[in-house]
Amino acid sequence: MASSILRRFIPRKTTWMYGQRMMSSTIDVSVDEQTGIALMKMKRKPVNSLNLEFLQDIRNTIVTLEQNKKCKGLILTSDVPKIFSAGIDILEMYQPNEERLHNFWRALQDMWLQLYMTPLATIAAINGHSPAGGCLISISCDYRIMAPNYTIGLNETLLGIVAPFWFKDAMCNTVGYRETEIALALGKLYSTDEALQKGLVDEVVTSEQIMEAAQRKMLEYVKIPNMARAMSKQLMRQETADKLCSTQDSDVQNFVNFCLQDKVQQSLGFYLEQLKKRKSK
Ligand SMILES: CCCCCCC/C=C/C(=O)SCCNC(=O)CCNC(=O)[C@H](O)C(C)(C)COP(=O)(O)OP(=O)(O)OC[C@H]1O[C@@H](n2cnc3c(N)ncnc32)[C@H](O)[C@@H]1OP(=O)(O)O
User: Fold this and answer.
1) HEC states along 237-275?
2) Model pTM score
3) How many other CB atoms sit within 10 Å of the CB of residue 241?
4) How does it assemble (predicted)?
5) Do residues 8 and 54 touch, judged by C-beta distance below 8 A?
6) Burial call 186-195: b when 16+ CB within 10 Å, e when fewer
């Protein structure tokens, strides 16, 4: 399964385990050993944006859960009201320190590989907005349930940046080639209803019902013999993951070169300004 991938990375240890609970400053995890279902809540305020340390925490958590023999499934959700994840922390890309920028992108790649290929069954309970990197996390899960009146999508072009090929591949695998082509060009953020219609999410339920719906669906997943379920996931996803695995170093270098361009820095600076202005309106 993902063991060939797992062996290659030794994660930083920042997650603490107390019995069936794991805690870090940005993540809360509990494991129900009766059902084998873990619940991971992201809580990096104000918007669960993905910085280097948060990405490492997410990945460490998945690794720790994979090592727990009693854990078969993972539900990912947010503890921040109305926001699942605002995607990459733009401050990691804007006026960056070059060494940190390298490490940051590597951490994003590693988190994605871990989540995308984990033998655990995964469900995203999308209880808030989920742009760009937030959408990547969602589409890397096996099943997606979303609450109404939020948005989700790969909106990178709106920031003057380009979704990398592995974001594109994960999106293509979810909604198909033509829809991805349109979505990426326009930086499309789908409403919950549009996302359901296009197959970007699998189910829509109210915010109040989302955890119950996720638990119910997860019980279906964990009932399936574990190895068979995990191997069919591998069958579907290994080729996509391998494309990144075999080009990780050059992908980091491309990203760093891209980010350091004046034009890209200008676009990111402008986008950040717009975010602040929007807030003051
Ligand atoms: C070759 C490779 C090329 C590079 C590829 C890079 C791939 C990039 C992937 C990404 O994920 S880029 C990030 C994309 N994300 C967004 O566009 C989301 C932007 N944010 C929003 O739309 C909104 O903030 C929100 C998530 C809908 C929440 O709205 P709300 O009104 O509730 O909060 P705000 O007042 O807007 O935000 C609060 C606070 O947080 C800051 N912030 C928001 N998003 C980010 C972010 N992604 N990174 C860093 N900071 C973010 C926002 O500016 C506010 O800050 P303060 O004003 O309070 O300081």
Assistant:
1) HHHHHHHHHCCHHHHHHHHHHHHCCHHHHHHHHHHHHHH
2) 0.94
3) 21
4) Homotrimer.
5) no
6) ebbbbebeeb
Interval 29-51: pLDDT, tens: 999 999 999 999 999 999 999 99
Task: Give me the residue label for tokens 């399964």.
Answer: 1
Q: Per-residue b/e over 76-108, b at no fewer than 16 CB within 10 Å?
A: bbbbbeebbbbbbbbebbeebeeeebbbbbbbb
**CB-ligand 1 contact for 153 (6 Å cutoff):** no
For residues 162 and 168, give the distance between their C-alpha atoms in angstroms, rounded to a whole number: 10
Q: Ligand 1 pocket: which of 42, 47, 265 to mutate (most atoms <8 Å of CB)?
A: 47
d(CA 161, CA 156) in angstroms, rounded, equals 5
275 CA: nearest ligand 1 atom: 53
The pLDDT of 154-172, averaged and rounded, is: 97
Distance from C-alpha of 21 to C-alpha of 28, rounded to nearest angstrom: 8
Say what the ipTM of the complex is. 0.98
Q: How far apart are CA 39 and CA 25, in angstroms?
A: 16
- The DSSP annotation for 90-151 comes to HHHHSS--HHHHHHHHHHHHHHHHHHHH-SSEEEEEE-EEEETHHHHHHHTSSEEEE-SS-E
Given pLDDT bands bounded at 50, 70 and 90, which one contains residue 3? very low
Under CATH, what is the fold of the domain 3-208+229-280?
A: 2-enoyl-CoA Hydratase; Chain A, domain 1 (3.90.226)
Quote the pLDDT of residue 21.
Answer: 77
Domain definitions of the chain by residue range: 3-208+229-280
In the chain, % of residues over pLDDT 70:
92
275 lines ligand 1 (CB under 6 A): yes
Contact predicate 21/29, CB 8 Å: yes
Question: In this structure, which residue's CA is closest to atom 3 in ligand 1?
Answer: 162
